[in-house]
Amino acid sequence: MVCIVLLMSIGHALLGLLEGGPRHGYDLKRAYDERFGQDRPLHYGQVYSTLSRLLKNGLVSEAGVEAGDGPERKRYAITDAGVTDVERWLGTPEKPEPYLQNTLYAKVVLALLSGRSATEVLDTQRAAHLRAMRDLTRRKVDGDLADQLICDFALFHLEADLRWLELTAARLDALAEEVAR
Amino acid sequence: MRRVLSDLALGVRLAVGGSRKSWVRLALQGAGIGMCVAVLLLAASIPTAFGNRDLRDDAREVVEEGTGPAPLLVENGSVAFRSDYVRGEYVRALVSDAPKPPGVDRLPGDGEIIVSPHLADLLASPEGVLLRPRFPQKVIGTFAPEGMDGPLDLRFLAGDATIQPNDGNQAHGFGKEGSGGGLPTVLLMLSIVGAVVLLFPVLVFVSVATRLAAAQRDRRLAALRLVGAGASRVRLIASGEALAGAVVGLLIGFGLMFAIRPLADDIPLPEVATFPSDLTPTLPLTLVVIVSVPVLAVLTSVFAMRRTIVEPLGVVREQKPVRRRLWWRVIPALGGVALLGSQAGKFANGSKAESWPVIGGVVLLMFAVPALLPWLVERVVHQVRGATPALQLAVRRLQLDAGTAARVVGGVAVVLAGTVTLQMTLASVENEVRAEDQRERDNPSLSVTVNETTPLPELPGVLAGTQGVRRVETLRSTYATTQDNDHTSVSVGTCAALELVVRIADCADGRTYLVPSGNGVGDPKAGDTLTFAKTGGTWTVPAVERANGNVFGLYATPAAAAGLDLTGSHTELQAEVDTSRPDVVEHVRNALAPYSWRVHTIFYGEDSTSEIEQVFLAVRRALYAAALLTLLLAGASLLVVGMEQVRERRRPLAAMAASGVPRRTLALSLVWQNGIPLVISTVVSVGTGILLGVLVTKAFDAEVHYDWTGIGVVTGISVGLVLLVTALTLPSLRRATGALGLRTE
Amino acid sequence: MTTLLSAEGLHKSFGKTSALDGAGIAIREGEVVAIMGPSGSGKSTLLHCLAGILPPDSGTVTYRGQDLTAMTDNARSELRRTEFGFVFQFGQLVPELTCLENVALPLRLSGMKRKDAERASRDWMERLEVDTVADQRPGETSGGQGQRVAVARALVTAPKVVFADEPTGALDSLNGERVMHLLTTAARETGAAVVLVTHEARVAAYSDREVVVRDGRSRDVEFVR
Ligand SMILES: Nc1ncnc2c1ncn2[C@@H]1O[C@H](COP(=O)(O)OP(=O)(O)OP(=O)(O)O)[C@@H](O)[C@H]1O
Ligand SMILES: [Mg+2]
């Protein structure tokens, strides 16, 4: 599941990075690693397979090939459909589940990079989290002890995420500064 | 030892603390204790003041015995002026280096006079116009302080070359060993009660001041105890805090004492006005003050801490405190009443030893007030069930911590009780003095005694010729002793003469009258045998009728005194004056001025109402001032306590105000909270004061009089004080109940 | 659901610090609203303005059509006493009254007889499971018991709105949940709306929706129902 999430968000991340302007695949990998890939840099293969999927779905287009051979000479640009896709992605909260931080982090950074409201992203997410917590709380209040224990487990995990969200929200200004560098 | 000192030092540091609040607390404490110390130091100066007065009196005494002819002749020339008495002597030096009385540079020669500054002022003032004819001499100087009793002494020393030597006017020098005068009973009574009543509250107040704003300190010390400080260490720390206040108080007290000392000059009562230099506390008493005040402060503080030390958690968590016990608290009250009751009426006998039970009783009763009050407040407060929320809040607060309020109000109560007692004693004394004055005033006769050595046959004629004199009668008076060795005077005169000195309706020749002495001791009875000192003769007292008069003794008509040898008796002229003429007596005295020391005049008919009024007004003012000052201080303490309580309860107060509890309710609960202990203490203290007043007056065998206006005024002041204090607490309540009070600190 | 209490364009400054900068909120009848946000964002200030404890510098607060900001201090006091209930983080109970008397206090202030007030209060204390400490003083109870006593006091007058500022702030999670559970259940039963300031998500999860305050500005994050 982790991988799927990762794969799904790599596409969106690359799209988001392309919003700044057309780039080579190699550039994209470097930009991605710099921002999101501290402990897990992308393989070239991952970049090109993702790009070709995006190309197939019409979210990016090839923007000319420079002299020389090899795939790294191709430049890619985001299409209008690609922009719409990024927007929808940013505006949709992730399903409140554990281990979201990578995706959320990517979303926040990309929102900042593209001049969209990162606060909005976080608020949307926290609302989704809280809704889930509310449901769990309701189930807990109505349920028996086993329900309570199980719900509490989930609640504490969600709460931890929410705390992270809050902390991130509080540090958005600092983050924006860092991203802009 | 090092640890003891460091614990004490920690206490001092906690007291001084650094924050503005702790400075205010220390200042209040210092002011409270300082005032007490000043009063104590003044009291400690009284022995010096009166002692110095006695010493100067003795130094002035004429030494009559000596070898060879006397170098100086002295005649007493003291003369009354209205209700003042001008003391003085006429002297004639027979040798050039004749002895001088203290306070003068040289003896006045013939026609010269030395006066006291106050007499000089009086002579120069418009009031003194009628006195001037009696002192026509040339003023050559004034007395130095060592020649006077006090700054308001009216005194003179005049030279007169016409004085001839006789048995009674020989002077070989001045100055005698002190015999110790002693105060008159009335003054003694006032001063015993006054000293006890004023000094005791001072001591109580030292404790109250030490405990000023103690609740918070208790909590702090309880916290120290909770983190593991041992009981003895907490006691040491508490002592350190108390010591800091006491030391500041001592400093302020000495400062105050020296600041008010110069004012002793200006006391408008000649008997009390004192040279500032005479107001020096005696060394032993000063040491007692210096030692006892800090000791008292420390003891009170440690004693009051006992609950905190035993159950520190109770103070921190505001648990219900343990109930106070009654039994030891009633002991002083019962003891006091018993002691004073047993002395009722006995004081008249004048024996000094019996003043001790009286003093003891007064002290015990005064102590009963602060001892009983906390218990009583607690009792009442536990009975009251809050009928309204405001009352409930107040009552519950008091149930938790009745001690602080009761303690502060207890300070007020002692002062109040003392003041009421003093007022009553004063009222009784004043009443007695007025009644006596009233009795005397019915007697419009100026009595003129002629110096035995200089017969003045022309005197009745001179007197009769003076304006304002209706008639002149002659009495012959002498002294005798009864077989019980009591002294009495015997005067013989016609009915017309006797009527002027004794109040008798149907005088007939052949009757004898007795003016009884005040306490009935030593009154001669019919059948007693009298022995006359001058002649050695005896006389059997015939049947006597009792009558009122100013001077105690037997008064016989000529027929009744048939067998009486009047040799050596002196002549007493009675001049009936027309009292409707203003200052008639002073005019007559001026007519006698040329005879100076040869005649002495006494006038009982003087209307001294205004004088009495002035004296009592002054005393009463001083009393009020002292009471008011103490009450103000107590008010300040109440204010500190009140503000601190508001501050402590900021959060609940703010929360209540936030949930819509009207401020009025909260303010009202403050009024109740101060008012309940106050009402109780006022009732108790006025009750105790009156009881004490009755017992003391009874013990001194005087008639009981109630000074209701005075009691009302003092009570009113203390009630007003609580209202004022509450009103002053309101701003801090307002601040606490604002939305800001909800913010955590 | 009709709007019970609403605020618009609230501004409030303390000296140079601006605590509220155009905040607005609407509370509907019977709903539980959580106000969240970082520390110092103005949550408490917003709550105080809403409850009429603190007058805002500008903006309006409307309760059932009445403008709170235009009312006199006394009228607001009266309103708070009769229509609102309050639970704060700590220290709201009068230390010298017993817990029962604390709960009965608002009823008695409205003129109810002592007996009746204490009977009604005892019922509420039973519901909040603190009847065992009825005759103890607040100092002798645990923090959680004290908070439940405070909740009983807030609910005893059958208020239309209960304002709670960090009601579980001084409690551990179990006690906090217990207080929240009892508070929201009781409020739902009596139909009282609850305005709940908290920074704990698990506490906020007892609400129906959440309002986030940031830098003195509030925004509705979600509205369920
Ligand atoms: N009485 C006051 N005086 C000065 N500044 C104040 C006052 N009350 C609030 N503030 C300021 O207003 C801002 C908002 O305060 P408020 O208490 O509403 O924050 P909050 O959101 O409740 O914070 P917390 O979660 O820490 O309780 C803060 O910056 C605070 O410093
Ligand atoms: Mg707050």
Automatic annotation (TrEMBL), chain A:
Give every Transcription regulator PadR N-terminal domain span: 14-85
* Coiled-coil annotated residue ranges, if any: none
Give the top-rank taxon of the lineage listed in the UniProt record for this protein.
Answer: Bacteria
Cite the SUPFAM superfamilies for this sequence. Winged helix' DNA-binding domain
Query: What is the name of this protein?
Result: Transcriptional regulator, PadR family
Q: Which organism is it from?
A: Lentzea albida
TrEMBL record, chain B:
Keyword entries, A-Z: Cell membrane, Membrane, Transmembrane, Transmembrane helix
Which Pfam families does the record match to this protein? FtsX
Span-the-membrane segments of this chain are 23-46, 186-210, 242-263, 283-305, 326-344, 356-377, 622-643, 676-696, 708-730
Domain ABC3 transporter permease C-terminal span(s) in chain numbering: 193-307, 625-735
Q: Which PANTHER family match?
A: INNER MEMBRANE PROTEIN (PTHR30287:SF1), MEMBRANE COMPONENT OF PREDICTED ABC SUPERFAMILY METABOLITE UPTAKE TRANSPORTER (PTHR30287)
- Where does the record place the region Disordered? 433-452
Q: What is this protein called?
A: FtsX-like permease family protein
Q: How does the record classify its membrane topology?
A: Multi-pass membrane protein
Compositionally biased, Basic and acidic residues: which spans? Answer: 433-443
Location comes to: Cell membrane
Cross-referenced InterPro entries, in alphabetical order? Answer: ABC3_permease_C, Membrane_comp_ABC_pdt
- Signal peptide positions are none
UniProtKB/TrEMBL annotation, chain C:
Q: Which InterPro entries match?
A: AAA+_ATPase, ABC_transporter-like_ATP-bd, ABC_transpr_LolD-like, MacB-like_ATP-bd, P-loop_NTPase
Could you tell me which residue ranges the ABC transporter domain spans? 5-224
**Which superkingdom is the protein from?**
Bacteria
Keywords, A to Z, come to: ATP-binding, Nucleotide-binding, Transport
| Any one GO cellular component localisation term in the record | plasma membrane
One of its Pfam families is: ABC_tran
Coiled coil, from the record: none
Enumerate the SMART domains for this protein. AAA (SM00382)
Q: Does the keyword Iron-sulfur apply?
A: no
What's a single GO MF annotation on this record? ATP hydrolysis activity
PANTHER family assigned to the protein according to its UniProt record, in alphabetical order: ABC TRANSPORTER RELATED, IMPORT ATP-BINDING PROTEIN
Name listed for the protein in its UniProt record: Putative ABC transport system ATP-binding protein
Q: Which organism is it from?
A: Lentzea albida
Upper taxonomic classification of the species?
Bacteria, Bacillati, Actinomycetota, Actinomycetes, Pseudonocardiales
